[in-house]
Prior knowledge:
Blueprint: H1 2-17, H2 22-29, E1 33-38, E2 43-48, H3 51-60, H4 62-73, E3 78-86, E4 91-96, H5 99-104, H6 147-158, E5 168-171, H7 178-192, E6 198-202, H8 203-215, H9 219-226, E7 231-235, H10 244-259, E8 263-268, H11 280-286, E9 290-293, H12 299-313, H13 319-328, H14 333-350, H15 356-366, H16 376-387, H17 391-394, H18 401-417, H19 422-428, H20 434-450, H21 452-464
Parallel strand pairs: 2-3, 5-8, 5-9, 6-7, 7-8
Antiparallel strand pairs: 1-2, 3-4
Amino acid sequence: MPNKHQALWDNCLHLIKQNVTEQTFKTWFEPIVFESYDEAKKTVLVQVPSPYIYEYLEQNFVALMAWALSKSFKTNVRLTYRLMTDQENKKEQEWESEGPSAIEAPAATTRGNQSPTVLDTAMPQDLNPRLDPKKTFDSFIEGDSNKLPRTVGLSIAEHPGKSTFNPFFVYGPSGCGKTHLINAIGVQCKRTYPRKRVLYVSARLFQVQFTDSVRQNTTNDFINFYQTIDVLIVDDVQEWVNSPKTLDTFFHIFDHLFRLGKQIILASDRPPVDLAGVKDRLLTRFSCGLIAELEKPNVQLCVDILNSKCRRDGLKIPAEVIQYIAQTANGSVRDLEGVLNSLMAYSIVYNSNVDMHLAERVIKRAVKVDNHPLTIDDILEHVCRHYGVTQQEVVSKSRKRDFVQVRQVSMYLAQKYTKMPASRIGLLIGGRDHSTVIHSCAAIEKRLKVDKAFVEEMNSIEQSFKLKL
């Protein structure tokens, strides 16, 4: 019987293969391993190597997989994934596919022939909280820059509306983890109090809903709906600074919820005092609970975040690469995750290990900062252009004098402008050992002391990439 089910799964893959490109199939579907089929529950259990692949499949191919499964198994089949969530401790978890019905099924039409909206939610258990189930306190790594907001957030989640931290106003620069934190509070509230009406909404969506209600003459319905929320979480409230009507409406909603002891959580890129255009009556309400700043994570916290994500996704990345990413991502959690996702994609698609060379290339494209640190590639590019040789010639085994000089200059500048050890510099410049790098740097330093023309030449090379420093 298991062979029969395996054959059905193989047929499912065959159907999928006919509807995607060869590269797509090899990258995302070949790593899937069929485990079992439960006839009673009509559930297929498959194993995937990482949460990254699971998330990509669910985001992009859930409808295709559901169609192929129903065609192959001749019935509606539910798909469950088994994946390694902690490679180091060999922890596994099973996640059920949301399925196309959960994503695409239309909600019941209400208010005549108008499209349904969030205002049509009738019962508390029917309210979609709009929370991301993956942004939890477990995945929100604690550090010096976020200890207070995280601790307060946990307290609020345990006793929403019952503490002095109401409203809870958290602010900080983009990428510091504000959305993750307020989302984690909502998720924990919903777990602890499943009957409470918890809602996460962006300031922009709130404003769109309000504008639609004005146009449709349903503003009272809009206000009444929001006044039924037990835990209201609003992100990016700074977007309302030039929207006085939206602010006035939110004031009435805020006042009503606050008087009833409902929990209000707000996030912004600046503190209330800097929200120009917001009236004092609302600013004083924003400030009457607790205002907490989320700072950019320091290098150590970035390292901890990267290591945690690597364990969760089953990634193996050298410690020096982790350190390099942490130092380069400009204190942005969003950049950290973007770099790791890119490294994972490159590793999967090209079946290659993650090393410093790949990390440099990915960061160069993924992280945009004003003072981007130089990479080995940058240095080689400028030095080779100055001397009129190619990088291939410099990293080759050739002992030709011109190539040796360019190689030595590149190693010297790499040691001067990067934080890499000599062993890593040598490896990236032609696979040399650390002693070659040390010898090259000593030779260049010696020449700089006695050769004025060479000093000017080096200054010219360094000037060519000064904008990157």
